């Protein structure tokens, strides 16, 4: 397919998402099923166009003075794929599958519009009602922080030190330009491609089948490292999901000690079985049911709560989530977070630690929850995060996360080059 056909396809998929509220992966899949002639390069390019358009939906709408799917897709090519209006018009010329586009003069005039005249949330490309939360989280940097969430994310891998080294993983992906992550000591980064370029399918590699790495954002790797798991300890991963953090603990603990992996939804735990086998992680005990946790009360050296959250820190990966989030979502997640904090805290031994992690940037889910927890649980105190960060970050000169009076660390794409993650740590006094 030429650019015109890809542009037309992206417009159709964006319309489907907009009018029928379809999830992006489903809308893209359906388009692929009804256009079987499209090759994998075409599908990748169309997917990139759709995701990029959603990342900057509001500012594209402002610049184009219209937010129809065609406006968004055309603006994506001009503002994110760096095509000039002339180059775009030339590449669509004579392409019978291409949509009609405005004249070069009109597009030049659109690009000349001054985005700084737009309302702040439009410049930031976030829903208006969330602006106050972003400002609370980041102060005067909030627009720049929100704008950094509109970029394509890199692909981050965590080298599994149970069976290989970061150097070997770097070598395996040397052709793709892999580099060491700046902060996470075992991370490997492959930067995102530009325009139609697709991200590599790292999980199709032999090195993946051999257990050399897991796909894990650098922010998630850092959150796991901040927990501070050491060989020989007893750990509870209370919201273990597919086990991303449990696997990181097993490597940090050199397969010595015990990790109890629990999740309220036991179907989410199922992938751990295969992942443990592949990674050679031998110390993970899967706890499928609440009753399997009996007897662990006051016994754990460390408990991690990787809490259910709105995922605002991962908007680079799921840009449609940015336009779906509601007040009710946030309120529901806050209630879940208080519930898991109370439920998981009972397993921490005196002197042991409780870690609270979200992949959200909203203070409502982060510092507010921590303050409320400390009020309900005077038997816990916060731990010094400055020291902990120093022991985790590979590069002491690298940017540090936001820290609010020792009430947690906040990582973000702009500040730390990671997904947005929040980490807070507590110690049980008695
Ligand atoms: C952010 S995800 C966990 C991701 C996982 N730790 C990882 O690193 O791959 C949050 C998890 O919390 C679980 N969850 C939600 N409510 C819970 C509860 N009350 N008790 C335990 N787990 C809960 C969800 O099923 C979900 O798997």
UniProtKB/TrEMBL annotation:
Belongs to the class I-like SAM-binding methyltransferase superfamily. RsmB/NOP family. It comes from Hoeflea algicola. GO terms for molecular function: methyltransferase activity. The active site is at residue 359. S-adenosyl-L-methionine binds at residues 263, 306. Residues 145-429 form the SAM-dependent MTase RsmB/NOP-type domain. Coiled coil: none annotated. InterPro entries: MeTrfase_RsmB-F_NOP2_cat, MeTrfase_RsmB-F_NOP2_dom, RCMT, RsmB-like_ferredoxin, SAM-dependent_MTases_sf. This is RsmB/NOP family class I SAM-dependent RNA methyltransferase. One of its GO terms (biological process) is methylation. Keywords: Methyltransferase, RNA-binding, S-adenosyl-L-methionine, Transferase. The keyword Transferase applies.
């Amino acid at each position: 397919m030429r650019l015109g056909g890809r542009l037309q396809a992206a417009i159709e998929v964006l319309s489907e998402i907009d009018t029928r509220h379809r999830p992006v992966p489903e809308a893209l899949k359906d388009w692929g099923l009804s256009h079987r002639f499209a090759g994998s390069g075409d599908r990748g390019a169309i997917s990139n166009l759709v995701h990029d358009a959603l990342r900057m939906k509001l500012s594209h709408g402002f610049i184009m003075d219209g937010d129809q799917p065609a406006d968004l897709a055309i603006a994506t090519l001009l503002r994110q794929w760096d095509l000039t209006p002339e180059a775009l018009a030339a590449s669509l010329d004579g392409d019978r599958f291409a949509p009609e586009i405005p004249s070069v003069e009109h597009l030049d005039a659109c690009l000349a519009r001054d985005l700084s005249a737009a309302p702040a949330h439009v410049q930031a490309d976030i829903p208006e009602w969330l602006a106050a939360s972003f400002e609370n989280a980041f102060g005067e940097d909030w627009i720049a922080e929100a704008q950094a969430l509109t970029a394509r994310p890199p692909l981050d891998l965590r080298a599994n030190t149970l069976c290989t080294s970061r150097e070997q993983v770097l070598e395996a992906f040397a052709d793709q330009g892999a580099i060491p992550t700046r902060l996470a000591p075992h991370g490997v980064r492959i930067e995102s491609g530009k325009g139609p370029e697709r991200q590599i399918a790292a999980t199709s590699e032999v090195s993946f089948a051999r257990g050399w790495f897991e796909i894990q954002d650098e922010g998630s790797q850092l959150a796991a490292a901040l927990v501070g798991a050491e060989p020989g300890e007893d750990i509870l991963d209370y919201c273990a999901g597919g086990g991303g953090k449990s696997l990181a603990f097993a490597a940090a603990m050199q397969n010595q000690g015990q990790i109890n992996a629990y999740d309220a939804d036991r179907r989410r735990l199922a992938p751990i079985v295969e992942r443990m086998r592949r990674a050679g992680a031998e110390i993970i005990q899967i706890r499928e049911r609440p009753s399997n946790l009996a007897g662990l009360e006051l016994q754990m050296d460390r408990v991690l709560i990787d809490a259910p959250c709105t995922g605002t820190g991962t908007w680079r990966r799921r840009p449609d989530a940015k336009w779906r989030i509601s007040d009710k979502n946030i309120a529901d997640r806050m209630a879940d977070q208080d519930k898991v904090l109370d439920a998981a805290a009972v397993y921490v031994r005196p002197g042991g630690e409780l870690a609270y992690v979200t992949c959200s940037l909203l203070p409502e889910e982060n510092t507010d929850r921590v303050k409320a927890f400390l009020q309900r649980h005077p038997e816990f105190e916060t731990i010094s995060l400055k020291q902990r960060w120093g022991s985790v970050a590979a590069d002491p000169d690298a940017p540090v996360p936001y820290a609010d009076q020792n009430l947690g660390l906040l990582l973000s794409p702009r500040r730390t080059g990671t997904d947005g993650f929040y980490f807070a740590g507590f110690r049980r006094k008695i």
